Amino acid sequence: MVDKPFNDYTYNQYLNEDKLMGSICKKCGAKYLPPRPLCIECFSSDMEWFESSGKGQLTAFTSIFVGPPFMIKEGFDRKNPYCVGVVTLSEGVKINGRILGVDVKNPETIKVGTPMTLEFLHMGEGENMKTHVAFNVA
């Protein structure tokens, strides 16, 4: 657990510090990532932070050959596709992110169940910096 009060810090602030933080309900133990201020299992608002190990397994994925404008600006297109997926983390929560270290042009070679480790992709600088979640083959 983390010593910062749940409502005093944000998920994105933690991402910018290379920490993947979720919320856990103090009443029933349900975990959420991204974090939630209210437990949807028992409806408690008594939540606290937990830090993910960043290790998990690929649960689902897709190769994207025609992306949205912001990905096209990053150089992704029909000739340079990218992969996104869902990773089930060792803590039991699922999170989506970019999948690295796979042959995106040949999605049949990508396997569900592949061990993954967390990476942080930092875009921009200063106050304009955004951090995105990505996973690489372990």
The N- and C-terminal alpha carbons lie at a distance of: 25 Å
User: How are the strands of the largest sheet arranged?
Assistant: 4-5-6-8-7
Order of helices and strands: HEEEEHEEEE
Beta-strand residue fraction: 35-45%
- Over the alpha carbons, how many angstroms does the gyration radius reach? 16 Å
Q: Based on DSSP secondary structure assignment, what is the total number of beta strands?
A: 8
Alpha plus pi helix count: 2
- Return residue spans where pLDDT drops below 50 for at least 5 consecutive residues: none
Task: Report the mean per-residue pLDDT as an integer.
Answer: 92
Class by alpha and beta content: mainly beta
In short:
This protein is mostly beta strands and 138 residues long. It contains 2 helices and 8 strands. It has a 5-stranded mixed beta barrel with strand order 4-5-6-8-7. Strands 2-1-3 form a 3-stranded antiparallel sheet.
Write up this protein:
The protein is mainly beta and 138 residues long. The chain contains 2 helices and 8 strands. A 5-stranded mixed barrel has the order 4-5-6-8-7. A 3-stranded antiparallel beta sheet has the order 2-1-3. It starts with 10 loop residues before the first helix and ends with a strand. The model has no long low-confidence stretch (mean pLDDT 92).
List keywords for this structure.
mainly beta, 8 strands, 8% helix, globular
Topology:
Blueprint: H1 11-16, E1 21-25, E2 31-32, E3 47-51, E4 55-64, H2 69-73, E5 82-89, E6 94-100, E7 115-123, E8 130-137
Parallel strand pairs: 6-8
Antiparallel strand pairs: 1-2, 1-3, 4-5, 4-7, 5-6, 7-8
